């Protein structure tokens, strides 16, 4: 690559791969530039894994905050220490098979802002250590509930013991926990059997790329603009003189026909070539833009 890579890769993580393996694949192709993923997928899971490359690694938090869509298959009548089929799975005695109406009613309890306990085998920190490391050693893992937001749950198919659903949710939601808690609500237990992440914000499974096919030659053409991660922010188009000021850390004076920017509202600054040049915060009643992160 003649210029340092700067952008976002939409990968389709294969089953059995860790998210780290996918990132390492990219990192080997772009070094010495950095690469980092925005939102871990368990090895069992497949689907959209956004990898930020070069200076775009500073935008990981923006991508992680995007809404996500999943397709999951739950296996009712079971429990597992991992809340999925990769752990120690045991049968649960069901006095009777839940009806479709009962499943629909129970799922409504998981919509909106809910309190959710993460799985014991998860990357959540407990006293500075990852929960899954403690769980693997057989140590008791006491995790506090976390507030997450679930926007939609649609049943795709149900024939006991298999339940297929599609879920729209916010950042930090554990789909395994939904399957586990749904099973408890139905008094029959539940574990996750399959999971595919089909969307992260504007990144969808339809145009995701298998990391196993990446090459040093193909990767630059597959990079999405870094601006995609900040597409929800207000924008300001920069002149070449503005770009020079940004590179020296100077704030920009702006005048707009539509009025000043909202003070304190993070704003995306766009270079003449259409690339993301910087993120800035309006000051002094929106008449100045103070750069916070500069990419140009």
Description:
The protein is an alpha+beta fold and 296 residues long. The chain folds into three domains: 7-66 and 202-227, 2-Layer Sandwich (Pseudouridine synthase); 69-195, Pseudouridine synthase (2-Layer Sandwich); 233-294, Roll (Archaeosine Trna-guanine Transglycosylase, Chain: A, domain 4), CATH 2.30.130.10. Helices cover 19% and strands 34% of the residues. It contains seven helices and 18 strands. The protein has helices at 19-30, 60-64, 100-108, 131-136, 175-185, 219-222, 240-247; strands at residues 7-13, 35-37, 46-53, 68-76, 78-80, 89-91, 112-116, 125-126, 129-130, 146-159, 162-169, 190-200, 203-204, 235-237, 252-253, 267-270, 276-283, 288-294. Strands 1, 2, 3, 4, 7, 10, 11, 12 and 13 form a nine-stranded mixed beta sheet that branches. Strands 14-16-17-18-15 form a five-stranded mixed beta sheet. Strand 10 (146-159) and strand 11 (162-169) form a beta hairpin. The longest helix is centred in the N-terminal third of the chain and has 12 residues, at 19-30. It is elongated. It starts with 6 loop residues before the first strand and ends with a strand. The relative contact order is 0.17. The model has no long low-confidence stretch (mean pLDDT 92).
Uncertain stretches: none
Radius of gyration: 22 Å
Can you identify the CATH superfamily of the largest domain?
Answer: Pseudouridine synthase
Mean pLDDT, as a whole number?
92
- The secondary structure category is alpha+beta
Number of strands: 18
Question: Order of helices and strands, N to C?
Answer: EHEEHEEEHEEEHEEHEEHEHEEEE
CATH fold field value of the largest domain = Pseudouridine synthase
Helix residue percentage: 10-25%
CATH architecture classification name of the largest domain: 2-Layer Sandwich
Distance N to C terminus: 17 Å
Query: What is the CATH domain class of the largest domain?
Result: Alpha Beta
